[in-house]
C-alpha cells in the first residue's frame, strides 16, 4: 500500500564541511515541485546545488542540478521508493565546504539527507477511492443508504426524480464486495450508470 506524508519534514547534515539541508514534503505534480525548487534557489543564493526528486506517478523526476550524474536526484528518488511513498517531493540544498566527497560520498550524503528527514515524517496510507453512480426505486432508498453507510461509502449526491439517483465513493478494496452484495440484494432493480449518465456496469 502506498503512503504519503502529512506535513513537510526537514534535516540538516554537515559532511566534510559541506552543509546539506533536506526537506521532504507532500507534492502531487512537477509544476508545483519546480516552483518549490525555484523558491529554494531564491532563498539560498549562496548554495552550489538544489537537487530534488519527485515521486508522483507519471510526474516523477530526479534532478542532480550540476552534481555528477546519478549522485543526487536518483539516490533521493530511491529512498522515497523504498519507503513506499507516493505524492512526495524531496529537496536537498547543498553549500559546498571546499572538500570534494567523491561520487560514493555524494550518493551517501543525499541519501542520508532524505532518510534523516523521513525519520520525523508522519506517514498516511493512500486509500484509492472508486466513484459509483446508480438509481434505485423510492422503496429501496432506505436500504441502499444503510448498505452504503455500512460499507464506509461517502455519499456525494442524492437526487430525487422518477427514481433516486445516488453518487458515492468508497475505498477500492471495499467496492467489489459491496457491488456483489447489492447485485443480490437489489434483485435487478438497481441500475448502474457511468459518470457520463449513460447506463453501464460499474
UniProtKB/TrEMBL annotation:
Positions of the Impact N-terminal domain: 16-118
Classification via InterPro entries: EFG_III/V, Impact, Impact_N, Impact_N_sf, Ribosomal_Su5_D2-typ_SF, UPF0029_Impact_C
Family: Belongs to the IMPACT family.
Organism from which the protein derives: Janthinobacterium kumbetense
UPF0029 domain mapped to chain residues: 134-189
Pfam families listed in its UniProt record: DUF1949, Impact_N
Designated name of the protein: IMPACT family protein
Top-level taxonomy: Bacteria, Pseudomonadati, Pseudomonadota, Betaproteobacteria, Burkholderiales
Region forming the signal peptide: none
